[in-house]
Amino acid sequence: MTIQPIFKSLALVAVGMTLASGPAQAETLAIVGTTVFDATGAAPRTADVLIEDGRISAVGSGLAIPDGAVTIDGRGKALTPGFFDVHTHWTPNGAPYQTPAIATAYVQAGVTTVNDFHQPPESYEPRRRWLSQLASPHVNLTARMSTPGGHGADWADTNTTKWVNTPEGARHEVRRLLPYEPDLIKAFADGWRYGLSADNTSMDLGTLSALVDEAHKNDLKVVTHTVTVARGKIAARAGVDIIVHSLQDGPVDAEVIDLMKASGTAYAPTLAVYEPVKPGQSPPDDLNNPRYVQSKAKFQYALQNVKALHDAGVLVALGTDAGMPGTPHGVATLHEMELLVQAGLTPVEALMAATANSARAMGVLDDRGAIEAGKRADLVLIDGAPWTTISDVRKIERVFIDGKQVVGPGVALPEANSQMTMAPLRAQALIDDFEGEPGRTATGALRVQDTDGGMDRSVLISLVAPEPGGDSALRLAARMSVKEDPHAGVILPLSRGSVQPVDARAFKGLAFALRGDGGPYLVMVRTVGGWWQTEVEAKSEWTIFTVPFSDLAAAPGWRRAQTPWTGGDLLEVQFGGGRAEDETLWLEVDDVRFY
């Protein structure tokens, strides 16, 4: 497998390409007379900050401002390092242009570095190219690993979340990820489902330790989904870098504190996702509802545990689980600081969690996270004093990423990012004849198996097999899970990772050969705006189908198309179907093309 060279997102992310409607960006910038919270431990002080070539060149009073520098009056304002969020999910949620909207939400909130836990490795290279075209935070793309049947393995395929159950398997899968150059690895190590459903499987100490060791050998940080005190001890013994959830099934004890301190494991409690009544919501009518009572109890443990760990000397970073229900991108990061103060940290300590502590936990404090000469100029200018009143973090006036202003007077950020997808590729006629590189379509994209989600999933086997005459075709065989509306199928991305769309307006529709158990089968086309579909039937003899684009109807439910069909923004083609629970499905497909 050949992966084109890609740049890690810890390197420079270009953010100026979408700012043509804003002011010209100077090589040298001076923010003068501002009150600097530098996140080094020093008290806030009045100073000037000089920025050259995207980095801070000097911090001090009465600096000599070079001729030609753009000067920003920071008097009466606070200047902080850009904020981190070490736990986010840039979820598509079926919405068009979701990535640009999420990028906008983060930069408007002053969040300049995030970890995204949601993307399959196959998508990393095109996503990095896309992000480089947006006004965006630095995005660390995170590879996912879980156990068979574990949390995180209950949706998507094994390309998105690697399944490991032994030390040997963990090392093997870490090595398989390396060609994609992930920025870090997330292990779903704890299967506790918060008492709301049956537990998933959990990762044992030997497997997690091997995963961490192999990752560290390759300069990759490891973070874990860990939510119980007992599993927190296992995570610390394994040497994980950050626990990116709250330990919330009871109070932390001296053992877990000592283990985390000994291993240097940091803690990002994601209080925002666990808050029982989130901003804008109302409490339930029945305050004695068992689920609500339980969520309140877990949240109280989460609050008291972050305070206990902080006071004991465990490094507290900031993460939110943004992208999950009720936890919006950007503003949730700001609210997390407020919740840290609610837990008992001071505003200064909450700001440190959002800046230097998170940078230290991620191993990038030499590059960013504090306002010091030589560091990346990721900065937030605030109309307030958040070290005194933490809610002042919401009073953002300007945001700078790599020394370029991306939010503030003269920068039309929402217009610059809105409805911006990648420029489409020209669609080629052949999508897949199953004769090329193993596992990949004729366009070089990795084929993806697709089944219903959940702990009990339909079982699908797909493989390319020879046909009489020397041809090959794709064979699918599935046994349906015991649930409502089970399904199984295969996705043929039209570009790597289904990120960059293709323009198929030169064609009239889809042509393909099928044979199977009768059907019905769903033929689906996903666009940037949603899914379109039709049904076909196929018997045991090969049948050639031609499906005009005009015969495709908008898919129902959460897959529904949110924008009209144009033919110019196609992402993938899918074949599959559903049957009654515990029944089987088989299907063969060949020579898929546009006509």
What does the model show?
The chain has about 600 residues and is of the alpha/beta class. The protein is built from 11 helices and 30 strands. The strands form 5 sheets. Strands 1, 2, 3, 4, 5, 14, 15 and 16 form an 8-stranded mixed beta sheet that branches. Strands 6, 7, 8, 9, 10, 11, 12 and 13 form an 8-stranded parallel beta sheet that branches. α4 (about 205-215) crosses α5 (about 230-240) and α5 runs parallel beside α6. It is globular, with a radius of gyration of 25 Å. The two termini are about 30 Å apart.
In short:
With 595 residues, the protein is of the alpha/beta class.
Primary descriptors:
disordered N terminus, 11 helices, 595 residues, eight-stranded mixed sheet, 30 strands, eight-stranded parallel sheet, alpha/beta, globular
Q: What is the number of E strands? A: 30
| Secondary-structure-derived class | alpha/beta
Gyration radius from CA atoms, angstroms: 25 Å
Oligomer state equals single chain
Which ranges are low-confidence, i.e. pLDDT below 50, for 5 or more consecutive residues? 1-24
If you average the pLDDT, what whole number results?
92
What share of the residues lie within helices?
10-25%
Strand % is 25-35%
Quickly count the helices.
11
What about the largest sheet? 8 strands, mixed
Distance between the termini: 29 Å
| Overall shape | globular
